[in-house]
Structure formats: structure tokens, C-alpha cells
Amino acid sequence: MAVLDVAVVKKDFPILDQQVHGRRLVFLDSAASAQKPQVVLDAMRHYYETTHANVHRGVYGLAEEATALYEGAREKVGRFIGARSSREVLFSKNATESINLVAHAWGRANLRAGDAVLLSEIEHHANLVPWLILKDALGLELRYLPLGDDGQLDLTHLDELLAGVKLVGVTALSNVLGTIPPVRRIADAAHAAGAVVVVDGSQYVPHVATDVEALGADFLAFTGHKMVGPTGIGVLWGREELLDAMPPFLGGGDMIRDVRLDGFVVNDLPWKFEAGTPPIAEAVGLGAAVDYLEGLGLEAVREHEIALTGYALRTLDARLGDDITIYGPSDPASRGGVLSFSYKDIHPHDISQVLDSQGVCVRAGHHCAKPLMRRLGVGATARASFYLYNDETDVDALADALSAASDLFG
Amino acid sequence: MPGLEDLYREIILDHYRSPRNRGELPAPPARRVEGYNPLCGDEIVLYVDVDVEGEGEAGEARVADIKIGGQGCSISQSSASMMSAAVKGKTVEEARTLIRAFKAMMSIHEHRLDGEDGDGPDADGGATAPANGAKVPLGDLEALQGVVRFPVRIKCATLSWNTLQQGLDEAAPGS
Of A259, A294, A329, which residue constitutes the final position of a domain? Predict the structure, then answer.
């Protein structure tokens, strides 16, 4: 297996070659949004400079080329996640829209008052609020898989919780704790109970080699900008038979085969769920991002992140000891490179502010997971997250900057 | 680019480490108001006891006592602490004037589009002009002036003031 050469990778990302407050930029917020390699920027620029036209419409050469690039990006993304067919790969605005698509189109067609939906306590708001909206609209019962004290989901009562459940929604990797729930086990149990499984892959697909068949999901939502692609494009993968049976989500151009004044006929998959002009340049950029990640190898990316997370856990413990509390599983191999932490009694806002003055970018806040914050008994945390361009010097810079915060507030 | 020392002045850190008027008041008679900053999860629970002295239209409403609870960052906590010290014992009208003056100090740079990086509105002696043009001395609160150079932190500094405004509106409507 290839080993990630981070020194080379760093050079692919022009934004990292800069100083902030007179110091080297140390970007530790890739769980919020990843930086972009030159090849992605070039692909989008080249597309606009040479090939741009609307897709699926013109018969002129330029429009055909743009369509080929757009559909080519779909095929790349489909292969990247092991989809059987590009008909199962829908482009959306982001992972949030992808999950809303499932809630709106599948949910409203298949869920009735009193039906149960099983989620987990560690979900991002994107996999909570669409179901809370449906709960209010349809009268659903929402249940939650609890978080165990070891930072893993507690599946002790999984089978009981699944009784009568029509849909299960779970993250494949927590954006707060780094927890990697056993999606396959949950999906198998859910299927045995007759439920459909929606997986939020926003933090998983960019970091872990993904095969939708092995994952066992029925729907997988993820987003381009967290996987070194552009903002403005997300993906929903869904099983073809489910997508086929679903009513459309947004209505408009491109998603129809025929429109009369008294009705319409929907288009084939995947265009049935892509109303209006899609994010074409963003799809081209996402395709380039997939090429880039495949060139490095997702296995190598994951190995690198496990090693770096282990280094971070050891370094922060050795240098800060009991002053730092890191949430989530303690074994680097069973978690993602997302470290949410509390440090002394210093508020995450103040930590982030002092770290910024040292050139270190970390997130501070509730990370769009307020129920999880309540479960952890904190109002907010600071969060450092790693990706393929981070190395041990970045972790050292984090530890140094935390010492500076301690000097000011400790 | 502003430095950390512009934000974390010593008096701010002092109020953060030793917050004044921390606690609760029996409500009623006090008003209990919650303020929330949904972006960062900071929350404040403010108790304000308003007494009215005198009768009828001549009656004067006064902030007899104020207590602050909740949790948040150094800026939100120190701002709340300084605010409580500044308005306790003041008339409601004086407190409202202070709220206006503080908000004016917090937002004054937001409206400066001329690119000039001045030292703030109080270069002539530590007072801020509210809408009516009169000078309102802000005292220790002037230390929070550096916050305007860190725009994301302005909402931290104003959380308690917005909450107090709501509390006064409820406790002394029309005053």
C-alpha cells in the first residue's frame, strides 16, 4: 500500500502556503471544510474557460462536452463509492440537501402518523432536523441510539429500539467525537426489522475507502467540499429500486420528461431528482477531487490519519495531561481524526481566538450537534480535525498554542 | 491586524475570573430573562429587580438589584459582569441610555467604510455619544472597545446587554 507523503501533499494545496499573524497557517478545521488542491481549482477554471454551457440541452459541441464532463463526474463519484450504476448517484447542493431529499421524497411517501424513526444521539443537525420536521408534519415517533461512555454508540437495545421502525438514520463518522459506528451491523439489524437505512457519510467518505454495498446502507449522503472538492455540490447515493419508487423532490426543468398544462411525467434516474441547472463546474471540480483522492489512495489517507490521531492523543496527553479532556473513543484505529476537547476551564471561543493568533485554525462551538453537547454536559467544545495535508508539526503547533492560551487564561 | 492584547485587556480578564453580581434572585418579584447565542452556545440567565419609587407619572423606576447566571466565553462573561456593576442602582432610564451607548461603541466600526483605523470613539476622554448626542461615561466598559476589531466576538459582548434590554422591557414597560 502506498504511504502518504504529506510534505508533497501539502504543496498541492496553495492556500496552505501562507502566513497568518506572522506564522505558518496550520489548518485544523477540515471537518468543517477541507482545503482544495491545485488540480481541483485548475479543473474548474479550465471548464469555465473552455467548455462551459448548460447541460442536457444544447446540441452544439460545447454543450455536449459540458454534459459529458458533468456525467463523467457522476461516473467517477459512483465508482469512488462502489455504486452499481450512475443512475444511483444524485447531485445535490450538499449533504444536508441530500438528507432532506430522502426525508421529503421517501419520507412523505412512506411514513405515516405513529411510525417510528431511529436516529442516534451523536447526529449532526443535518440528520436530525429533517426528521424533526417530518415528526411535526406527520406525527412520527423519533427514537435515539444512545452514546455509551466509551464514545461508541450503545447498541445493547438495538433490536428493541428497532421494533416498528420504518427508517434508521445514522452517521458513519461523528463530526464531534470521531466515533465510527458499526453501520453494517446497524443496517443488517434495521433491514431485518424492515427499515430503510440512511447514512450520513459527510465525515466518512472523504477519509475512509467507501463501498456502499459493504456499508449496507440504502441511502448515503455526503458533500463535495469536505473531500477537497468545491462547495455547492453534494451527493445522494440511493438504491435504484428505492429511488425509482420515490416521488420527485424539487420540481422544474431537467427533472421531467414531459409537461402538460395538467400534469407532468418525471425524467429517468438520476435526473428525476435534479431540477434546474445543476452545479456543473462544481461537479467537474468534484470529479477532479475524486481523481486526486484516488491517486493518493484512500487506504493511505486513512492510515495516515490513524497514525496522526494517535500522535495527537499521545502528544496532547503528555504535554497537557489532566488539563485537557478529549471526547470520543480513545483508540485511534476506531475513530476518525476529529478531536473535540475541553482545556482547563477556558471557553472554546477563547481557545480558538488565542490559537488563531498563533496561526492555528480550530473550530469552536457546538458543531451543529446541540443534543450531543447536552449529552456531554458542555455548552461548546474546541475541535481540531485532521486531513491528508496535516502532519506532526501541525499537532505540535496545536500543543504550543494551547500552552499560550493557558498562559493568558490559566 | 489587531493583537490579542487589544481584546483581552487586564480588566476584562479580572471580571472574567471574578465575576460581579453572580447568582440568582427570587423571581418573582425579580424578572428572570434568558439570553442565548445560538452560534456558540453561550447562554445568560439574568435576574433584574426593578423598584418604582414614588407614585404615578412622577414615579421613577430603578434597577434595585441584578444577578447573572449562565456560561460563556471571557468576553460575554466579563461584559455581563461589568454591565451588572454599571447598571445596579441606576434608574431604568439611565440603564437604557447605557445600553444604547454600549451598543453604539460595539458597532461604531461596522459603519466606518472609509478604511480609517481610528482608536475608537472616545479619543477625547472616555465617553461615547449615544443617539441623542450626549456623552455617556462608560467607565470600565471602555475596556471592551477592542472587541469591535474582532467582529465575530461582538455578539459575545452584546449578549448580556440585549438580555438586560429585554428584562427592562418586561419589568418596566413604557419606561
Answer: A294
Chain A interface includes B123 (CB < 8 A): no
Q: For residue A243, count CB atoms less than 10 angstroms from its CB and return exposed for 0-12, middle for 13-18, buried for 19 or more.
A: buried
Which pLDDT tens digit goes with each residue over A334-359? Answer: 999 999 999 998 999 999 999 999 99
* A241 shares a domain with A110: yes
B146 touches chain A (CB under 8 A): no
pLDDT in tens, A184-236: 999 999 999 999 999 999 999 999 999 999 999 999 999 999 999 999 999 99
Nearest to B43 among A357, A364, A379 (CB): A379
- Cβ atoms of B153 and A349 within 8 Å: the answer is yes
Place of cell 448517484: A89
Is A1 part of a structural domain of the chain? no
Looking at the structure, tell me whether residues A19 and A60 fall in a common domain: no
For residue A371, give the chain B residue with the closest CA.
B41
Residue A139 C-alpha cell reads as 406525527
Only one residue has cell 497514525, namely A307
- This model of the complex carries an ipTM of 0.77
Chosen for mutation from A19, A342, A346, A353 (greatest number of chain B CBs closer than 10 Å) is A353
Which residues in chain A are closer than 8 Å to B150, comparing Cβ atoms? 353
Taking only the tens place, the pLDDT of each residue in A115-130 is 999 999 999 999 999 9
> Domain range for residue A103?
41-294
Q: Clarify whether residues A290 and A345 are in a common domain.
A: no
